[in-house]
Amino acid sequence: MTISIKNIMNNLSPYYRLKLIAGKNGIDNTNVSWVSTVEDFSSRKFKNHNQIILTSFMNNYTEEAVLAIVHGLHEAMTSAVVVNTRYIKTMPDSIKEYCDKAALPLYIMPPDIFMSDVIKDISRILYSDENENLSLSEIIQSIVFNTGDIQSQINKLSFYGFSENSTYCPVILKFENAAEKEPELFLKKAKQCCDSAAQSADAKHISFIYNRIITIILSDMDKKAIGRLINTIKENLLLKYIEHKVYICVGHLGGNIYSLSTNFKRVLPFFNVAIKNNLYSLYYDDMGIYKILSEVSDMQILREMFNSSIGALARYDAENDTNLVCYIKSYIQFDGNAQALAEKFYVHRNTVNNHLKKIKEITKINPSTLEGKLQFAVAIKISELYNL
Fold it and tell me: Are 50 and 33 within 8 A, CB to CB?
């Protein structure tokens, strides 16, 4: 869901006379999956995550008992609590203080209001929001993957307030070790975390999950705003999923809806660069030579350049138990400084020179020249970008 607690409550009828009495810092939370009424807190019904819970605490009159229940609701990641005041006329300060500290929105409603009516209306709002999100997700995926008439899909997007004249930037997230028992559920929760951050930042966005990659399409956001959002998403994900490494790649910032498909496909290989260089986030527009290489439509040209240089050395290494690929990569990394290379590998400089001569002999490329260094540098970038 992408609708916040605040928006849900604002969309309810004024007749219900719901009043927020604590937990104001949590009303922008968009992690809301469903709504339930619970009176028997010994059951596990209330322990499903991301629910709005309605209750009257009819079986729990003491302040200690109610506080313990509210604590349990927070631990179960309840999104908000709505209390019918039929049995508890005044909410104790200790409970309000706890909800403020936990950022757990706490609402009260008059005793003459039927909880079943409120549940029915909240369910309707959640169902409508879910259908809208599914529809938007299907439309944007049709555009990204070229599976339908683009003009028809753009017309549908405009119905939801997304303009043909806006900019559209894909932001894609990948978890390096997300292969849990239930990866789909994990990714769904991570996506909800991203949606919540985007909602809090007032970011106009559409999100979906494809091939275990979370994609967020941002509309009309500049680099600074996207940077702030990316930082918030990273912080939120690290707090919840500290054991998982997440890599975030941001596509071309100035693209329009017609170039969105190309923009998305070009940024996908950059996960390889991010992972190999341990970059938790990168921007396509800042990637220099990688960006140029990604614009080459003929992969055969890139493969030939790789195979005639780094690829040839890799084959030689495999056959002769040598490490010439490692030598040439380090040589390029040190800007052709043979002495630095000798120090790294704890060998005499003459040994380095012999290796460089061998590299020239195998590849017919002289790594001591500017042209040679450039060819090897480009080949290394190709291997990193396309995982060759």
Answer: yes
Cα(205)–Cα(31) distance, integer angstroms: 16
Domain containing residue 270: 165-287
Q: State how many domains the chain has.
A: 3
**Pairing label, strands 246-250, 205-210:** unpaired
Instruction: Provide the CATH number for the domain around residue 60.
Output: 3.40.1390.20
Sheet strands side by side (includes 205-210): 205-210, 213-219, 168-175, 246-250, 281-283
Cβ–Cβ under 8 Å, residues 384 and 336: no
Place of tokens 């809090």: 200
pLDDT tens digit sequence for 161-178: 888 899 999 999 998 765
- Residue 344 belongs to a domain: yes
Q: 310: domain CATH number?
A: 1.10.10.2840
- Residue 318 in domain: yes
Q: pTM for this one? A: 0.66
What is the distance between the alpha carbons of residues 12 and 311, in angstroms, rounded to a whole number? 64
Please indicate, yes or no, whether residues 282 and 339 belong to a single structural domain of this protein: no
